[in-house]
Amino acid sequence: MQLYDELLIKGFERACEKYPDRPAVIYIGEKISYKRLKELINRFATALHDLGVRDNDKVMLYIPNCPQFLIAYFGAQQIGAIPVPVSPIYTPYEIKYLINDSGAETVLCQDTNFRYIQEVFPETSLKRAIVTNYVDLLPWHKRAVGALFDKVPDGVVKRDQTVYFFKNLIRQYPPHPPKVDINPREHLCYILYTGGTTGFPKGCPLTHAGMVSFVQEIRAVGEGHIGEGKEVFIMVNPLFHQMAQGVILGMVLTKGNTAVLMPIPQVDAILEAIKRNKGTLFLGAPTLYRMILENDRVSFYDLSSLKYCWSGGDVLPLEVFNRWKKQFGVPIYQVFGSTEVGFVAMSPLDKEPVPGSLGLPLPSREVKIVNPENLEMVSPDSPGELLVTSEYIPKSYWNKPEETAASYVEIDGKIWYRMKDFVRRDQDGQLYYMDRSADVIKYKGYRISCSEIEAILQDHPAVIGACVVGVPDPKVGERIKAMVVLKQDARGVGGTELMKWCRDRLASYKVPSYIEFRDMLPKSKVGKLLRREIREEERRRIAKGERTIRV
After folding, report:
1. Residue 86 · residue 195 · CB < 8 Å
2. Which of 62, 248, 254, 517 has the fewest CB atoms within 10 Å distance of its CB?
3. Residue that is last in its domain, among 212, 236, 259
């Protein structure tokens, strides 16, 4: 058997054997041991199979950070099904598309977003919905106190033959799922979604062997630095995101460590969690680090237990890097990658991270830095577009041949993914971020497709054209600005109406902060939108000190 030829859950099961009584998860003060978490995973897997979920069926996870996410993620994989994690704040418009594109027949959702599922259910491939609540796994007395003081968000659930309740399933079914023959090299471990260049999110599938390779290399980075059975990781990043899955598996659940799951990323709650649980490991987007540093009460919390902190999702400003090290005495290490390929690079832990560096490429990731026009390699230490390949990464999107052709290229017999990030590489092999494609906006660690927002705006009956760009903002990375051209006969349509149009169809973090009306948009001779030209125009405006009017 090759090093990575096993199911993803095997690493977790080895930790269960070695550390059965250690807390795997702490959630709203409740500790769930490795032994108990494994039992719940097996119970849920048994339930799914009895409900009719079979090999290669898709199970959508439409929930925030909570133990139920991990239970469903591993439970689906146990019986050969494929989890499809998505953001719990997606709108009905978005979730309908994702269900149908993935072909999901089962969804696990919160009672608070069940109404969205109920709204789109008849128009999708869904056969069943499993509903849970923030406090389903808490003891009765904690649930009672939460209900008494109205501290637990809940929603109305209309019962019918297609609706099941998570807490009932794990009570009713034994922890004995059927054995399913799964080839780790061929069987999908998950499908994750990322922004699309044609206006629709695209699915990124990955096999079990691919995810195991990713997790094992993260473990290797921590070797000799991240302990086993003694670390406490404060899990703030959303588990539907690939970065969070990689770190919680590579640094925590395969090493017998403990994850403190934070359902809502509220700064004071995060600081209290670090203090109360003596957190040693932390992961966040640059925006979160800035928010913590600027919190008026940060000095009231003892964060001296922190040993290793990582940043990912966007470029870490040097100012934040320096302030964090000065205030807490702990540097911030970097992780860098994408949903398509996982982590490409990480800062080594055997020395202080180099300011501005993205770290060293992982051993299985082969990288090229090329001229984006002809894909020829640039000279050493020169900036260019980053291409990545590996034996273990997927070579296409899920059912998206047009998107695949635009993002994957064959060079010298290998399929390379075009990262659309521009970097340079120094003599030591470390990567340094230079710029990104004009098609991608980084807001609070999210990678947002400009085309997706443009497509929504252009669906409005009064809009004939739209261009979306990122406006640099030191607090959040970039804010979203839309330039809109209205039809000649449009009357009375303003920014407020278009904002509402977007809010009804997009997750809140994708809604533009600014809308500017124009008579026309710059296009190439073949009619292609020159988004980079508008982006540079906005940068020049900011450099001159001109303000962007916010709607």
Report:
1. no
2. 517
3. 212
